Each structure stands twice: as structure tokens, then as C-alpha cells.
Amino acid sequence: MEQESRQINFAFIGFGHVGRAFARLLIDRRKWLLKEYGIEWKVTGIATKSHGTAIDSQGLPVKKILSSWKRHSNIDNFHNGPACSSPTDFIRQCGADVLFEMSVLDLSGEPAATYIREALGAGLHVITTNKGPVATHFRQLTGLARLRGVRFLYEGTVMDGAPVFNMLRQTLPATRIRSLRGILNSTTNHILTQMEQGTPFEAALDYARDAGIAEADPSLDLDGWDSAAKLSILIQAMMGGRVKPKDIERSSITEETGRIVRAAIRRERRLRLVARAYRQGGRVIGKVELQELEVFDPLAAIRGLSNILIINTDTMRELAIVENNPSVDQTAFGLFSDLISLLR
Length: 344
Ligand SMILES: NC(=O)c1ccc[n+]([C@@H]2O[C@H](COP(=O)([O-])OP(=O)(O)OC[C@H]3O[C@@H](n4cnc5c(N)ncnc54)[C@H](OP(=O)(O)O)[C@@H]3O)[C@@H](O)[C@H]2O)c1
Description:
By secondary structure, this protein is of the alpha/beta class. The protein has 15 helices and twelve strands.
């Protein structure tokens, strides 16, 4: 028997590397979504900071917007709806069932947290790749979603599309995470492993920027803030701790770090930016540290843009998730996998 289709409307805040990659993935999987879930979708709103805002209840021509996208594109001319003078107006008027929040990282979590609060309050499900609001406002936003009976999902915030939260939720019932450690930031891992081969710091950073992997403000990567924000999300979502990014001790990576990288190589060891969390006296402690590792440590084998997370559990002992050289397409898949868990 033919499955009856249902219509679902999406809105995007942010249409940068991630937003556009996600739009391409949605278009690519349109038939699959219809066949597997009976879903017909349209994007009824896109809001950006400087590339304009557009709402159309009939659905925006996403394919056309993508194909004509340039550095200075403006989507205002696709707007076909009521006047919309602020992001709050946008959320109220976009007519979406699901808001995908994909704006830039700010450790205060703002203004994204305000957008998410507004959307959850208005009964929209929210899916985000933005670490800032999740790390800094975790309890408030998850509590609000519960209160409003909607979903707030954030798989893409820590390891792009690799299953971290979905894996715990769906496949590790009644499991307590004792501790965890990993390499969570692609930009700094790329720089460290390039410096092992003698590449200068600046050239390695430029590569990460060109690949669309570095944060808009690269000091967020280099000073360990990105790793701290991800670790804070893991601690709050998986270990029940109350650790915010500012509570996490951090190391920075600079041009000077090259000397330490080369000294470690001479001792047949590897320098890595390690994020770790452990329980101590009823609390969870988080740290982001430059550590010199034995070559046989699994973290030492993680090179380039790759990431790893090892969780120590009371059911499965140690489990490792490795993401090999992610690109923005894997982040887009994180949003897609959250969408699927919402549709189930
Ligand atoms: N890139 C990755 O591989 C990756 C991986 C995991 C997570 N993330 C996270 O995903 C998010 C998006 O990353 P990205 O690489 O797509 O960044 P991006 O290319 O810089 O795009 C950011 C988008 O957000 C918009 N924006 C910025 N501030 C805004 C505001 N106040 N209100 C509304 N829109 C705003 C920007 O508008 P304009 O276009 O006008 O500038 C742009 O469209 C970030 O939070 C990032 O940390 C990214």
C-alpha cells in the first residue's frame, strides 16, 4: 500500500558552508525521504547576517539560490511574504516546523540562543550545528524543548555527522559514561600533524580556512575554545555534569608549538590537543591540554582533520568513534541524521 505523504516545512538561520551543504544534501535525498518516510519538504525561510533574508510560504527555490550563490549574493529578492525586520520576526513568520540553526560560533551562545529559545517557545523543533548556544545554555534549552514537547537536537556540534549523541540514545541503553577523551578540533589537529612534517604554522592554518573547517574567528580553534565548547556539550549531554566552556582549562596552539612538536617527534612521541573529562568527588572535570603521547596511543594515530572520541562506559568498557578527514558534507549529514531521528 502507498504510504500517504506529509508536508514538512524547514527554515534555516545561517546559509554558509554548512547551510548550503545541508541544502544540497536535502535536495539529493528528496526521493529517499519521500520513499522511506513519506516526507515532502520545502524550505519556507532562510535568514543570514549580510546575505539577506527570504520567506516564501510556497517554498523558496533552493536549487536556484544554490546555483546562483556568490560571495556577495543577496537573497532578499526571493522574499515573498510579510515584512520581516528582525530574526525574531523571521522565526515567527517563516511558517516552519523545524528550524535549522547554523549561524556562527560565539561562546556567549548569543544571538543563536535567543533564536533557539524563540523557536522552541513557538513550538518549532530545532536542530543545530552551533556549539555556542548548546554549550552555554544547555539546561535552559533542553528544559524548554521538553516543556514545549518539541525536539532540540545537536548531533553536528561535536563530531560533525559521526554518531555520538544518537549512538548513546539509540544503542547504549542504561549506560553510564565514566570518562572520555578525544581529539575534537580538526583545525588544530591538522596544524599539529602538518608541523610534524615541517609545514609552517600559517600555511597549515590557511589550508583549514580554505577547506571551510576553521571557525570564522580562528582564535576559537587555536586557543582551545572550540574543543572546550564540544567537551562541555559532551559533559552536559552524556555525563550529567554542569561544566561550561569557561570552566574548562585550555592550552593554546601557536607558531611556537612547532618547536615542541618537533622535540616530541625526536623522542618518538606525538603532540596532540587532547580533550578529556572524568568524574571526581561527585563532579565532572573537563580539560583541553596539549599532551605528548606514546605513538601506540590511538589518539597519536589521528592525523590531519580527523577526530576521535573514546568513551569509557560501565556496560561496553571502552568504545572509540573515529571520523576520518571530515568535510562540511559530514556536518550536513549530522543535521540530516538529527532530522531522521525527529521523523522516527
Ligand atoms: N564548517 C564546519 O565544518 C562546521 C562543523 C561543525 C560545526 N560547525 C558550526 O556550524 C555553524 C555554521 O558554520 P559555517 O561553516 O557554515 O559558518 P559560515 O560559513 O561562516 O556561515 C555562517 C552563516 O551564519 C550567518 N550568520 C552569522 N551571524 C548571524 C546572525 N547573527 N543571524 C543570522 N545569521 C547569521 C552568516 O550570514 P552571512 O552569510 O551573511 O555572513 C552565514 O550565512 C557554526 O556555528 C560552526 O561552528 C561548522
